[in-house]
Amino acid sequence: MARRGWLIAVSMLTLIGCGRTDLLWWSAELADDTTSGDGDPTGDGDPSGDGDPSGDGDPSGDGDPTGDGDPTGDGDPTGDGDPTGDGDPTGDGDPTGCDDIVPDLTPVPSTLIFLVDQGSHMDGNFGGLSRFEAIDAALFDPMQGVAWMWESERRLGLVAFTGLSGVWGDNECPVLEIVEPELLSTASMAASFASLQPEDDNPVADALAATVPLFDGGPGHVILLTGRNPDTCDQPNPQWGANEAVLAAQQAYVAGIQTHVVALGNLSDSYAQALADAGIGVPPQSMEPAPWWTPANLGALRLDLNALVGTTGTCELDLGVPIDPALVDSCQVELDGQPVSPGDDGWSLPSPDRLTLDGAACDAHLAGATPSMVCPCD
After folding, report:
1. Span 43-59, pLDDT tens digits
2. At a CB cut-off of 8 Å and minimum separation 6, what does 149 contact?
3. DSSP state, 370?
4. So where are the chain's domains?
5. What average pLDDT is seen over the chain?
6. Taking the CB of residue 167, how many other CB atoms lie within 10 A of it?
7. What CATH fold (topology level) applies to the domain 110-310?
8. Buried-most residue among 29, 108, 121, 225 (CB within 10 A)?
9. What is the rounded distance in angstroms from the CA atom of residue 223 to the CA atom of residue 205?
10. How large is the average pLDDT for residues 91-109?
11. Cα separation of 279 and 277, whole Å?
């Protein structure tokens, strides 16, 4: 007992010598000391006593520190890309996450060639001008020329034709002045036409046969401006080439080329009608004969040509974006808001980026009906 008291006394003197006289501090140190010596007085693995033994901010240890069911804190608790869980991941009202395809339908420019009779008879009077001068003014006048009006919407070309049967010391047939069809070609056509004058014969069949290859196998239109019944290269005189001209128009039609007749002189009605019928595939003696035009002066010629070029538009439309063939059956086409069915009198897709209107639908479009198309994305 005396020995223990001596030890306590020595300890207190030591503390006093170290500058610490607060016995509470000493007793607190004794109280905080545990047998493990690890700073965890309760031994529960949580030295701070805050309920987070690991100290990582996630007391439950389940990877969700806030306990709100969203472990990443990105607003998408399931991590499936649909934060609201309503089946619409983008929130745009479209649960499939895609947009319908609405092509920007742009008409494919049609190809049209003015086939101009350059025979000597084109010097004849036409409302105060020669027939040849009237054609020049109607097509190429800088202010009112029909070609200028349409050159950005049609691929326009020019073929002026005649035949030289020895009158001028030559024997060449057909003689052709050609400007191949292109967009914005009016300046080239006007310059070429300005260098020409009426010459000799008018072999329509030979000229039309030479014009068809300029379409490169595609469809198109020929507007024939002529002033008398035709001859041929084989028989320049007399003008007995009507049957050959009609046959050439039939062959051109089979190749996809329509021929339209504008008479500026002394064509027989029977020849002009037969040629017009053959030009657009109307059977001979049809109850609905094809139209042909007989303007009497420059103003009427300009009006007729403008109206005629306007009807030679295309029924092919560029979609601007290719359509997946798997979606074609679900696509919907309308003309002025009225549904059009696929088929012979409706529409087809000959290629993923091209819509074709056929039959009655094509006729309605050429008459002014506006097409639209929608393809569901799914």
Report:
1. 666 666 666 666 666 66
2. 306, 309
3. P
4. 110-310, 315-374
5. 83
6. 13
7. Rossmann fold (3.40.50)
8. 225
9. 14
10. 74
11. 5
